[in-house]
Structure formats: C-alpha cells, structure tokens
Amino acid sequence: MSSVNVAVVGVGAVGEEMLRVLRQRRFPVNRLKVLARSAREISVDGETYEVEECTPDAFEGIDIALFAGTEGEKGAAATFAPEAIRRGAVVIDNGNDFRLQPNVPLVVPECNAADVERHEGLIANPNCSTIQMVVALKPLHDAAHVKRVVVTSYQAVSGGGRSAIRELENQVRTWSRDEAIGAPEAHPVQIAFNVIPQIGGFGEDGYTSEERKLVQETHKILHDDTIAVTPTTVRVPVLNGHSEAIYIETERRLTAREAAEILSRAPGIRVVDDLESDRRPYPTALDADGQDATFVGRIREDLFVPNGLSMWVVADNLRKGAATNAVQIAEELVRRGLVGERARALAHA
Predict the structure, then answer these.
(1) 30 close to 3: Cβ distance less than 8 angstroms
(2) What does pTM read for this prediction?
C-alpha cells in the first residue's frame, strides 16, 4: 500500500489505541500528526508523540484523519471534520455524530467494505457493541438470513472512557480498605461489584441510546432493516472487553455445527467452542483483551424453536470495537485508491 499522511485526533483511551494499532498493523504512514485540545507530549508503549493543538490548518496535507471520539459526547469531528475534508482528508470518525446520516457510510470491513467506495469525505465507525455483533451475524445472515436478534451486552467500563476506568479501580480500592464508597460520577450508580442495566440515556420507549444504536446501526451495516433486533445493554465491572449473549432466528435452519463451520471460515472471527477439548470451551473478555479478532463460542440450538441459535460473542471494545476497525477502514481506503488526489478532487468538486 502507498504511504499516506495520517492525523489521529484525540489522545484518550481510543486515541492511544489508534496509535498503537497503526504501529502494530504496520499501516503505511508517511507522516503522522497527533492532535488534541492542547499541545503536549504523550508516551504510548515507550513511544513518544508530540501532540499538537487541533486547529483547521493542522489538517493541511493530511490524507486520512482518524477521530477517536467519545461515546455519548459531541466529538471533535463535529467541529473539525468539515475543515479536514475541505483540505482533502478522508475522515474516519469513531464518534456518534454522523453514523446514521444517509450519505455517510457506516463500515465494518468484514461486513460491508465496499461501502467505502461511496464516501463523500467522511466514513463513520460504528458503536463498539454493534461492531462485534455484526461481525458474528453477517456470515450467518448470508447463509440463512437472520430474521430476529435478541441481544444482551455485558460492556466493560473502558467503553465509558478513562474516567469510567478510574472510577471502577478507585471503588475497588476503597472497598478493599473497608471504607465507604462515595457517590459515583462516571456511572449512574456504583459499578464495583455491580451490574447496571443502563448505558446511555433512556428514550420514551424505555430503550437507551446504546440499545437503539444496536438496532439502527445493524440495519444500516447489513443493508437490511427487516431484521428484528431486541437489545439490552448492561455495564459490568470489567476493565476491558465487551461480551454479548446473542440469540438469532433464521429463515433456513442451521445446526450448531453448521453455524460453527460458517463462522470459523469468516474473516475476523475466532471460534472457541469445543466441548470435547481439554481446554476451556468458550471465550471470555480477558481472552479478547488486546486482540483484534471477534471470539464466538457457546453456539447451541434452541430447545424449542427449530430455527433458533444462541451464541456468546466477545471482543476488545477499544480495538475491534473502535481503533482497529477504524484502521481497517483506512487500510481499505488505501487499498482501493480512495485517498490522496482522488479524495482532494472530491473535496473540491
């Protein structure tokens, strides 16, 4: 792949992970800029990065701008994406500001890589919980057409950013000293030794914003709004790695063995589901931590519904759920020649 000039915007948990993934995947970076609200120096895995203040002019000469974003907040892309695009960059935004806009592709490369072809300077990275779910759904949908999905997510605190991570750690330390845990700030209630059936704000229908993302984003990515998705999202006291219990009903019956074989051949998936093995026959959030794959296990047929299947899906929400997926989109852009002069011509069309 040709080398390109890259900007990473944001140096929180996702921004740092983007820097890590770019290096680990040997993305063809010619020149790298790290941008944030204020200039400073940061270190990631022993590598020192000079952080520049994010301004419109900072995007001059940039081919791909990766915006780290923060779930539930207005991201920097809302302010700076138009400026970056005007200067010829392709923006890949991890935030929630543009995902459902009709002219913005919402991309998981294992599912709908070709959608990058219709970008108008901006591509959205889906929500972390959506990404791992559709990676597991897509091959089964292609094989047997998924009609219904019932999903419960068990989401790590890293999905709420550094403040949420620190709050869990501080509450555990406080508890270990046999002291009273104070009022929470990053979570609606105490997260240590607890599970919270709320991520995001509630709508009039009783579903949270995180739950609505699972519905709307799945429809957009899989190009099928007939799939009935019933979600429940839960925050759990896990530092990193989201887990999902997913139940599906398909038009054509799939046995558990068939589903496992289909998933084992699919890109980006690692099946861990062998009850006869001496090793643990299912994946956990700790197994996914630091990994780019989506892990699938506990694949089993419904006891009462002929075309029903259940499975357990885990992934690193900071990597595949955010940084890695964004870098994979960037790789797809470079592979297809959709950056550089072609992007600049589009910006000035």
Answers:
(1) yes
(2) 0.95
**149-184 pLDDT tens trace:** 999 999 999 999 999 999 999 999 999 999 999 999
Distance separating alpha carbons of residues 221 and 105, to the nearest angstrom? 8
256: left (phi over 0), alpha (psi -120 to 50) or beta: alpha
Q: What amino acid is encoded at 298 in this protein?
A: R
Both tokens assigned to 158:
């890293």
CB 28 within 8 A of CB 1: yes
The catalytic residue among 54, 111, 128, 141 is 128
Structure tokens at 182: 């104070």
Q: Which domains can be identified in the chain, with CATH numbers?
A: 4-125+322-347 (3.40.50.720), 130-317 (3.30.360.10)
Average pLDDT over residues 8-17: 95
Residue type, 153: S
Q: Which DSSP string do the residues of 154-186 spell out, in sequence order?
A: EE-GGGG-HHHHHHHHHHHHHHHTT------SS
Active site residue 242: yes
Give the CA dihedral 311, 217, 56, 337, nearest 10 degrees.
80
For residue 296, the tally of other CB atoms under 10 A from its CB is 28
Task: Kindly calculate the radius of gyration of the chain based on its CA atoms and give it in whole angstroms.
Answer: 20
CA distance 223 to 308: 22
Q: What is the pLDDT of residues 221-262, one digit of tens each?
A: 999 999 999 999 999 999 999 999 999 999 999 999 999 999
Active site residue 111: no
Say how far apart CA 254 and CA 250 lie, in whole Å. Answer: 8
